[in-house]
Structure formats: structure tokens, C-alpha cells
Design goal:
Elements lengths: L3 H16 L4 H4 L10 H13 L2 H10 L4 H13 L3 H11 L11 H18 L7 H13 L15 E4 L5 E2 L4 E4 L1 H8 L13 H5 L1
Parallel strand pairs: 1-3
Antiparallel strand pairs: 1-2
Helix pairs in contact: 1-7, 3-5, 3-6, 3-7, 7-8, 8-9
Length: 204
């Protein structure tokens, strides 16, 4: 398997290329992630890339150990005055190898899923490397929702990718593109129109 950091850096550079051509209005488009705009999601990616085990402890303490508040504070810290500032922050962290105390594949999930949080509302498509999507999907499928994964969301169904050799779980089948299965597992219902199969009823 490839070095996960190389895959992460590849995704960061690809996102930089897509963001570099956005106009002012596109930066403020609502993303798929929470109540964040495209620019706020980008700032979140900067904050995550700057995170270290010690930094996350300090940040959580400042946020009174409220995870959502900690994320919001990180976004505010890295947003900058303008979209150009946010983009420059992404450039600065593109090749960092730091992150919170979590499995490295979680860094890959962060880049792919938040990359789609940004791209889909803007009508931007990306052809991701198969290994990148497969590693991200398998990580999310085995990781608890409480730890940022999607294990409970897909319990009782069988996921089958139609564009890769990926089958996960048991039960009524849900099939479609591996990227859409990843987004669904990660709680993005915007991927539902891409999927089919008897298991969809259970997931809905």
C-alpha cells in the first residue's frame, strides 16, 4: 500500500488547484458539512493539518472539552481576513505530516470527504485514486460514529462498490460508486441519489 501521507498530500494539492479558480461568491457557497461555507471547510482543513497531539489537548481545554466548539474556534482561527488568506493557509500546510492522535487513514478521510463537501455544491468533480477512496471507506466502515466514522450508520447492510472491488458488511445490499458509499457512510445524504439496492430503505 502507498504511504498514506503521500496520498493525503496529493489530495491537498488537488483541492488547492480547484479552489484557486473560485470567485468571491463561490467561496461563500453552503458546503455539505454542517452549517459551514466552502471557505469555512477549507479553514477547517487548515486547522486540522496544523494539529498536533499537544495542540489538540490545548484546543479542547480552551473549548471546555466541547468538540463542536473546538472545531468552530479552529475555523475562526484559520479563516483569515479574505478567501486569499484561507487559500494561502492551505498552501502552507499542503505537505505537513501532523495531525491529531488518531489512525493515519483518518487524515485521508478528512481530505476526501471534506473535499467533496466543497466540490459537490460547486459542481466540481474529481476522479480520486481508487486506493484513496477504498482506504477511506474501509476506515469509516470500521470506525464508530463517536470517533468520526460511520460504523453504526451502515450496520445491517452490505455495501458494494460498482466501480471498485469493495464489498463491506452483511445484509440487504446498497450499491453504487465507492466515493458515494464513502460519503453516505460519513453522513452525507447528498450521495443517496447515486446509490441503489434494497438496503437503502434501512439506511434512510
Amino acid at each position: 500500500m502507498s504511504d498514506v501521507w503521500e496520498l493525503v498530500h496529493h489530495e491537498r494539492v488537488a483541492l488547492l488547484r480547484d479552489l484557486a479558480v473560485l470567485d468571491k461568491d463561490q467561496w461563500e457557497v453552503q458546503s455539505l458539512s454542517h452549517e459551514w461555507t466552502v471557505r469555512q471547510v477549507a479553514a477547517h482543513l487548515v486547522d486540522n493539518a496544523r494539529t498536533t497531539p499537544m495542540r489538540i489537548v490545548v484546543a479542547m481545554a480552551l473549548a471546555r472539552f466541547n468538540f463542536d466548539r473546538q472545531n468552530a474556534m479552529g475555523v475562526e482561527r484559520e479563516l483569515g481576513e479574505t478567501a486569499a488568506d484561507t487559500l494561502e493557509g492551505l498552501r502552507e500546510v499542503a505537505h505537513r505530516r501532523s495531525g491529531p492522535p488518531a489512525p493515519l487513514d483518518s487524515r485521508l478521510v478528512e481530505e476526501v470527504v471534506h473535499g467533496e463537501d466543497i466540490r459537490r455544491p460547486l459542481g466540481i468533480t474529481r476522479s480520486y485514486p481508487v486506493e484513496t477512496v477504498e482506504r477511506s471507506l474501509r476506515y469509516q466502515a470500521r470506525t464508530s460514529v463517536g470517533l468520526g466514522g460511520g460504523k453504526q450508520r451502515i450496520a445491517g447492510v452490505r455495501l458494494r462498490a460498482t466501480d471498485a472491488d469493495i464489498v463491506i458488511g452483511d445484509g440487504p445490499q446498497v450499491h453504487g460508486p465507492a466515493l458515494s458509499l464513502l460519503l453516505l457512510t460519513s453522513g452525507r445524504n447528498a450521495a443517496l441519489p447515486d446509490l441503489d439496492g434494497p438496503g437503502l430503505t434501512a439506511l434512510k
